[in-house]
Amino acid sequence: MRWAPDARGRLERAAIELFAEQGYAATTVPQITARAGLTTRTFFRHFADKREVVFGGDEIPENAARLILAAPSGLAPMAVLRTVLHRVSAEFFASDRAETGAWRAMILANDELRDRDARKRADMVRASRAAFLERGQPPLEATVLAELGVLAFQVALDEWAAGSDDRSMDAVVDEVLATIARQAQDRAER
Amino acid sequence: MRWAPDARGRLERAAIELFAEQGYAATTVPQITARAGLTTRTFFRHFADKREVVFGGDEIPENAARLILAAPSGLAPMAVLRTVLHRVSAEFFASDRAETGAWRAMILANDELRDRDARKRADMVRASRAAFLERGQPPLEATVLAELGVLAFQVALDEWAAGSDDRSMDAVVDEVLATIARQAQDRAER
């Protein structure tokens, strides 16, 4: 989420700053556009409403599906997920952990944003499932893999954003995937 | 969801019938209470609004947490999940698959209900995570187990409700848990 010279990036940056300074509920679209030095008309060309600035547009599920389809065909499913999650973390979360942490904390503190976040997660599962079906996985396997991938992404993101050590998002992704593999082992006794 | 002589059960039953007959959006609270032979005042003693009839009250996350805590202490985590999910399916879904299928289809077809369903899922993860922490799991393990449990429940419920064979919900739960265990294995090639 680095500062970008384009209108969209400026609006996102201004919104995140204002949400951090005065809270999500107290921030209005005109305040965001004033801070960004742009018009409200420009705002609504990029985002349906204030809430959508927080969620970065509708292209994320499609991007996830595209990355799943682009992974080498010989990879085992969990290796596909690892490859995709490393790509995603490089694209989106390489920059600023404190900013990502503030953004996640804001979402988790607000019921309306939590609902939207939960729906976004469901949309990501849906898009990822379609991609795994296209890779030839049977329906139940495709559903489980899509759910595991989105689960790993969300858990890793929250772990990384809340953490105080200097691990990379990739290291956290690997730890979460290893924890899933270990915990999901099906045996009777611990 | 068998017919129950109590007010709450009668209201749920009337609501589900009306939602099936004329759709969720077109159904009003007075229609529900007229069908149930009860007053709107009684309705609002049991449910905050029309939407909450669909989701069966707020006690489900607490029930899940209680069942996790009640599982024998020597069980491996996935065996805890299996035990809990068998108990849940016996309590809630032993009766009528067609009715459950209609109910799930209604939720998935309506954005407002999908949002609420997604939030309920997040609440179940939260409550289950607290229970796994109380069972002595470290934080990341507790998060992953709670997510896997809720994932398995949701996937099994949708699989079972949409299926046309006569498998029990327990058999579907076992298949979903086995699929998770198999898919989550961490290896490089398939």
From TrEMBL, chains A, B:
<protein>
    <submittedName>
        <fullName>TetR/AcrR family transcriptional regulator</fullName>
    </submittedName>
</protein>
<feature type="DNA-binding region" description="H-T-H motif">
    <location>
        <begin position="28"/>
        <end position="47"/>
    </location>
</feature>
<dbReference type="InterPro" id="IPR009057">
    <property type="entry name" value="Homeodomain-like_sf"/>
</dbReference>
<keyword id="KW-0804">Transcription</keyword>
<dbReference type="InterPro" id="IPR050109">
    <property type="entry name" value="HTH-type_TetR-like_transc_reg"/>
</dbReference>
<dbReference type="InterPro" id="IPR001647">
    <property type="entry name" value="HTH_TetR"/>
</dbReference>
<keyword id="KW-0238">DNA-binding</keyword>
<dbReference type="InterPro" id="IPR023772">
    <property type="entry name" value="DNA-bd_HTH_TetR-type_CS"/>
</dbReference>
<keyword id="KW-0805">Transcription regulation</keyword>
<dbReference type="Pfam" id="PF00440">
    <property type="entry name" value="TetR_N"/>
</dbReference>
<feature type="domain" description="HTH tetR-type">
    <location>
        <begin position="5"/>
        <end position="65"/>
    </location>
</feature>
